[in-house]
Amino acid sequence: MFRVCRSARDRLIVLLLSRAGLRRGELTGLRRSDLHLLPDNAVHHCLILGAHVHVVRRENANGAVAKSRHSRTVPLDFLVLHALDLYYLERAGSPQSRSCDFLLVNLFRDPLGAPMTLGAINELFAALCVRANLDRPISPHQCRHGFASNLADSGAVLDEIQGLLGHASPTSSQPYLHPSNERLRAAVDRVPTPSSLIGDHS
């Protein structure tokens, strides 16, 4: 799906859903001011180090809303940062977008410069699935599920997955904990032997 995107904005959308685990409402409600991209973000009055996005529940003109009432912070990796740079260059070519603080705006259809809607995200994914000749359609929310599964497969523990996804209860994150046989073996191998705990006195 990423390969068949036709704009930097659309590639950024796919990455923010699949590599930051955002919900559609969180994604379309993002403001440019929610992104802190410096190694030290003190200039933004933010104590969190490194590139990240603040997911905040608020009223939005495009009807988007974050599901959770609790704000959270999600780190952004180098792929998302690269996609952001390319998107900002693309967006700079749209004079109508300059006064809009929403991160994602209409660049290719009217009303130009207006914040994207949930429906526009759905339409994009439907088009990407067709262009990619997928056997079955992929929804934006499935990208979030993929992000959670990738976290679990990479060794993230339950509270980390819960925090990154913004789940109110850890039970919502448990379905993603399906460790492979290799991870189960590695978990056993990490348990110290009695001799390593008391020292070898032979």
What fraction, in percent, of the residue positions are helical?
40-55%
Query: Could you give the order of the helices and strands?
Result: HHEEEHHHHHH
Low-confidence stretches: none
Cα gyration radius (Å): 20 Å
Proportion of residues in extended strands? under 5%
**Main sheet overview:** 3 strands, antiparallel
How would you characterize the overall build of this protein?
- The protein has eight helices and three strands.
- The protein has helices spanning 8-19, 24-28, 78-92, 118-131, 140-153, 158-165, 181-190, 194-198, and strands at residues 35-36, 52-55, 72-75.
- Helix 1 packs across helix 5 (140-153).
- It is globular.
- The model has no long low-confidence stretch (mean pLDDT 87).
Key terms for this structure?
202 residues; mainly alpha; three-stranded antiparallel beta sheet; globular
